Amino acid sequence: xxxxxxxxxxxxxxxxxxxxxxxxxxxxxxxxxxxxxxxxxxxxxxxxxxxxxxxxxxxxxxxxxxxxxxxxxxxxxxxxxxxxxxxxxxxxxxxxxxxxxxxxxxxxxxxxxxxxxxxxxxxxxxxxxxxxxxxxxxxxxxxxxxxxxxxxxxxxxxxxxxxxxxxxxxxxxxxxxxxxxxxxxxxxxxxxxxxxxxxxxxxxxxxxxxxxxxxxxxxxxxxxxxxxxxxxxxxxxxxxxxxxxxxxxxxxxxxxxxxxxxxxxxxxxxxxxxxxxxxxxxxxxxxxxxxxxxxxxxxxxxxxxxxxxxxxxxxxx
Amino acid sequence: xxxxxxxxxxxxxxxxxxxxxxxxxxxxxxxxxxxxxxxxxxxxxxxxxxxxxxxxxxxxxxxxxxxxxxxxxxxxxxxxxxxxxxxxxxxxxxxxxxxxxxxxxxx
Lengths: 317, 107
Known about the structure:
The complex is a heterodimer of chains A (317) and B (107).
Chain A (H helix, E strand, L loop, with lengths): L13 E5 L3 H10 L6 E5 L2 H10 L4 E5 L7 H10 L8 E5 L4 H9 L4 E4 L4 H24 L11 H18 L3 E8 L2 H8 L1 H18 L5 E6 L2 E7 L3 H17 L12 E8 L7 H17 L5 E5 L4 E4 L4
Parallel strand pairs in A: 1-2, 1-3, 3-4, 4-5, 9-10
Antiparallel strand pairs in A: 6-8, 6-9, 7-8, 10-11
Chain B lengths: L15 H27 L2 H14 L6 H16 L9 H17 L1
Helix pairs in contact in B: 1-2, 1-4, 2-3, 3-4
């Protein structure tokens, strides 16, 4: 399935410590050794910010009182940058100042710890911040995943399709879009019950996942319809991937109805890099091709290559 | 400002991790003493304040609360020192240096 779990499972989360005092680096790396984290240290705000952009940590511990670029300015920059804005930041300060605390929380810090550190407290605060961060990431990812098929959902499709379309347009990259629908799905639900229908959706999702590559974006478009975004993929290659998915489906034996095969129809619209219609037009073309494949008798692929305007049809196997 | 209870930061030299922190801190003291002297000779109040600020925050965690409070006295004196002259900080600078030297010698 897709990565619905916490990022980097098994590896220790990286904590970035930004503080101008060598003592603090030494103290924290020694005292947090028993926690399952890796600490990376930077000695000024700018260096810490640059490091966080390149290697986003799971947590940042940020000193307030630093020369050149102080903690508040660093925090502001971190919260302004799309790649670092969601990383939790714990502020470390030598001053127990209520005004600083308010400013820190208003700027988006998750916690505020005063020096000298009470160590058991600091450990607990680090742990809680990391757990919260992991939980939020899992939730954010879950919101993008369809609960039955475990593929991406429609919301994710709508967002990613526009992004991939614009990227393809900008760089004149190949790009293909696949729309795929289960033939006579209502019949399966009616004859064998909804659990059997659900099993078909799950099973076909698994076949799709096994055939697509890591960069591809397989989604459940709605009901019994799926969409697959294939970045950097010419229509002829998209066709090969789809043909494998189609034959896999056709040859699968279903435990709930071993005598009743399930087939799919597929519409593809793609380009090798030259011309593009609008993103919406592209989806409409793939969908039209899907319905043409259905009208042609199901279990087949209908493809449009925008590059030369050619259409290709496959016959049922 | 709440002054931390010094006893809550005293370390146990028989504990391996504590001993490591204590000896690291002592090994760093000569460099701090040197920087304090240099800054004092140069009349660099800003730098004095920065060193004091760092020692204030760090020393208690390494088991040296007395250095922490001497550093706090110096930092406060530096902040309150509106004339910017180094002479008015001499008492606090010397107190801190002498305290650091006594620990550095002990090792």
